Amino acid sequence: MHKPHDDWGLGDLADFLSCGMGPGIFGFRMGGARNRHRRRNQMFESGEVKFVILRLLKEKPRHGYEVIKALEQKLAGTYSPSAGTVYPTLQLLEDQGYVRVVEESGKKVYHITPEGEQFLEENRDAVEDIFDRVRDTVRDFAGGPMGDLHQAFARVASVTYKRAWRWGGSHPAVPHIVDILKRAADDIEKEWEKVSV
């Protein structure tokens, strides 16, 4: 399998989480959840996204939407940045002289400037700390009991949808599978309630 040029240190884990059954497929992403049991409810602290965006633009120029999609891909679907975070950050970086905008086919394409590269270099330790933490966060999500949970959930989704897509909704097994999944969801919900009291 072809590896991305720079997987930001996630290696095979990036392939595992982004193979089509990553945490983002059903809308579960780090960044927006409010969970009192979590150590962190954001992937990045305030002001850190600018370093990550500059790192992306150092790889190659991108327009805003490409920045959003590249962040999702690089972080294996565990983080989905909002336009309300990315575009103001790009504007800030432009105001600071760290990126410049080139109009291409009616789109603003952002290029890192020499000043932006120098800024990244001057903050190399901070940038490495951010990426170390991101790697740890993603590995925590995919490893141990969470990894087991992810694989079990991915297997259920795979055995359900692979054949459903092949045979269609008129297959006689579909209503029975719906009942199985509803019972499983009820059992899971009861289990969470049991351990959270």
Characterization of the model:
It is elongated and about 60 Å long. The chain folds into 2 domains: 12-142, Winged helix-like DNA-binding domain superfamily/Winged helix DNA-binding domain (Arc Repressor Mutant, subunit A, Orthogonal Bundle), CATH 1.10.10; 150-196. The termini are far apart. The chain has helices at residues 12-17, 49-59, 64-74, 83-95, 114-122, 124-142, 144-167, 173-196; strands at residues 62-63, 99-104, 107-112. It is mainly alpha-helical. It has 8 helices and 3 strands, in the order H-H-E-H-H-E-E-H-H-H-H. The chain has a 3-stranded antiparallel beta sheet. Helix 2 (49-59) crosses helix 4 and helix 3 (64-74) crosses helix 4 (83-95). Helix content is 59%, strand content 7%.
Parts with pLDDT < 50 across at least 5 consecutive residues:
1-5, 10-41
Give the mean pLDDT. 76
Q: Number of domains in the coordinates? A: 2
Fraction of residues in helices? 55-70%
Q: Over the alpha carbons, how many angstroms does the gyration radius reach?
A: 20 Å
Strand content: 5-15%
Q: How many β-strand stretches?
A: 3
Q: CATH fold name of the largest domain, please?
A: Arc Repressor Mutant, subunit A
Per the principal axes of the C-alpha atoms, what is the gross shape? elongated
